[in-house]
From TrEMBL:
The active site is at H44 (proton acceptor), E71 (proton acceptor), H217 (proton donor). This is Pyridoxine 5'-phosphate synthase. InterPro entries: Aldolase_TIM, PyrdxlP_synth_PdxJ, Pyridoxine-5'_phos_synth. It is found in: Cytoplasm.
Amino acid sequence: MSIKLGVNIDHIAVLREARQINDPSIIDALSPVKLAGADQITIHLREDRRHINEEDVANIIQNSPLPVNLECALNEEILGIVYDLHPNKVTFVPENRKEVTTEGGLDLSKSEFYLRLDTAIMAMKEKDIEVSLFIDPTVEAVRGAKGLNVDWIELHTGHFANLYAMLNTNLKRTKHSIKELNTQRTLLEKQLKKSLTDIQNATNEAKDFGLKVAAGHGLNYQNVKEILKTEGISELDIGQSIIARSVFTGLERAVRDMINLINAK
């Protein structure tokens, strides 16, 4: 089974917002991503609009030659924007304004949130928009998603990525070292193995329920080979590492390099 690649282009808007001018233009990213062979454009409209804004969303949906996956929180204002702009797919994610990036999956155990999510999903379905839930890679989270009428789940791979980086890169010797993971290699190896097992078990559970499975967060050119060993994943959503490489290689080449790694599995 071939694995599709969604390219998250949020970090182009991060560069733009750093100087508060329309340079680089996020629209300019659409063509090289398509030419490289990617399957989807992914963007995240956050409540604080720290990078992508509603004008970006409208322009990208109108001009993208590829399907658009819009990540967003369960926020009434943003839901209204989604209903009006009609992306191909919506991925519901949790959101914390103090976070640097999304730190975990949706908590589906809270009954009030679950009911609000169910209502939003039904509204998306009426618009013929595919729906995905960004969840932690646990069997319990997958079972929580089962009762909702979604097409996809996306497994949060951030914990895996952190473990991999602490074990296989120089991260632990820098100021960005992850304190709670600053432990012996043997323990990190066990934790990494368990993390990959959890991802596989969650994928198996989702496939048994008839859900399509995506994975994303923290994936890069080094660690993606481990995720590709998971049987049953249909899509990877990758952003920061591709945009970071593109600074040196150009965006089309950076996307193509990732696609080559995926196809070489």
